[in-house]
Amino acid sequence: MAVEPLIFDLASPGRRAIRMPEPDVPETALPAGMARESLAWPEVSEIDVIRHFTRLSQKNHAIDINFYPLGSCTMKYNPKVNEAVARYPGFAGIHPYQPEATVQGAMELMSELQAMLAEISGFHAVTLQPAAGAHGELTGVLIIRDFHADRGDTARNTILVPDSAHGTNPATAVMAGFKVETVPSNSRGNVDIKALRPMLGPHIAGLMITNPNTLGLWDEGIDEVIGLVHEAGGLVYNDGANFNAILGIARPGDLGIDVMHFNLHKTFSTPHGGGGPGSGPVGVRAGLEDYLPGPRVRTIAEDTGPRYEWFMPERSIGRLHSFHGNFGMHVRAYTYIRMHGAAGLRRVSEDAVLAANYLKSQLSDDYVVPYDRSCMHEFVASASRQKANGVKAVDIAKRLLDFGIHPPTTYFPLVVPECLMMEPTETESIETLDSFVVAMKQIARESAETPEIVRSAPHTTAFKRFDEAGANRRLNLRWEPEHSQVVPSESVIGEVERILEAVPAD
Ligand SMILES: Cc1ncc(COP(=O)(O)O)c(C=O)c1O
């Protein structure tokens, strides 16, 4: 492999990629000590910069490069029209401090998006404020907490979480101050009702269920689960991150769910960032809307047409985000929903479910499929057969990289050993699905005949296997060559202190 120069190696004094225009204001010297004395910027030409970053961009897998069946993440294609609309100056150039009268269009979009999400899910009211799915969960659980507290029902200190729930669910419940008890699944991957019954009682604040669950299965006993929790005085939270499976087919609000979050970045094709910027709107049934975070947008009918204004719901749990959430994501999701329409959204889910069932049937001779029933938009397989030859789920995942395919999610959910969780999404062609099947079958064959090839994969990527735990625990996003370590000088620190002292106390 050719050794690729780092951008610092490409540097040569005097090379540059930009030219600043002549200043059109008088030049002023920086206050003494404010200029950094040493800053080792790489001085590089435009073409070297372009090549450097283009090379880097190709080292990472992306949905725009190839198939990305990362279960639970719904890595569907994000249509470029979303981006075009989000960049309209009327959306991209506004500021949340602007007076209401000047951002009526943006408020109208938010109001319509709330209404569309409410219609699609069967909920009474929706907030767009939370910035991610887990943030939506926190919003929902805080609503459940305040709902019970307002009724003086303060003994309800426990949230039940099935073992097939997403890992963020128990974490959220704990963050909101609750104890967590785990409800086991039965052999069909549903909540085990027999186990659930004795766990219910006056200490239960609610149950957080992921439905469809992380096994890619619709809970066949969902009606009974909801009924039992309600009978015990608890509320039911649905982790709606897997909503991509049921658009236009089932509405959680109609099932009796009390609170649910959506992941706009999964279901409604807004980009997944590294931890954001996402969007996790929350829907609630009638009677809980006063608890939603604010400020919320509402419509006032006037003779000249509707006017939009912000308001704080009466019993609001408070603000969950500065201003109004990730507005750019709202624009993208709105565009996606309007582009598809009701029939198109239903088709999205039908195709997502069809693609997952197709892959499951194609791979079930080669891999153990622990829950042999129709799946929703994703399914889990196990590498337990391959493990007998010393090939683990992680090895299969790494080997897929040699085929230019992003691996499925591995080792999650925890209830399946050597788990491979695959979610093809609705946006892939049959040819792409088939090429994935060919790769997975070849890996199954290799695991039986030449397991070392799989165990030592990947063979074609720029880097091999990483210290993943180390990368997580000792994250360093600011690598710099030693000579460019920048330490603010005493004079800079002194100058900043002097400026701060000069700021009036009020
Ligand atoms: C089922 C489920 N719940 C919750 C989450 C958490 O969402 P986020 O990553 O946006 O916080 C995810 C993320 O993929 C998920 O798949």
UniProtKB/TrEMBL annotation:
Positions of the Glycine cleavage system P-protein N-terminal domain: 42-303
EC number: 1.4.4.2
Pfam families membership: GcvP2_C, GDC-P
One GO MF term attached to the UniProt entry: glycine dehydrogenase (decarboxylating) activity
Stretches assigned to the Glycine dehydrogenase C-terminal domain: 349-449
Domain of life per record: Bacteria
GO CC entries: cytosol; glycine cleavage complex
Reactions the enzyme catalyzes: N(6)-[(R)-lipoyl]-L-lysyl-[glycine-cleavage complex H protein] + glycine + H(+) = N(6)-[(R)-S(8)-aminomethyldihydrolipoyl]-L-lysyl-[glycine-cleavage complex H protein] + CO2
Modification type N6-(pyridoxal phosphate)lysine: residues: 266
Role noted for this protein: The glycine cleavage system catalyzes the degradation of glycine. The P protein binds the alpha-amino group of glycine through its pyridoxal phosphate cofactor; CO(2) is released and the remaining methylamine moiety is then transferred to the lipoamide cofactor of the H protein.
Subunit structure, interactors included: The glycine cleavage system is composed of four proteins: P, T, L and H. In this organism, the P 'protein' is a heterodimer of two subunits.
Name of the protein in question: Probable glycine dehydrogenase (decarboxylating) subunit 2
Species this chain originates from: uncultured Thermomicrobiales bacterium
Gene expressing this chain: gcvPB
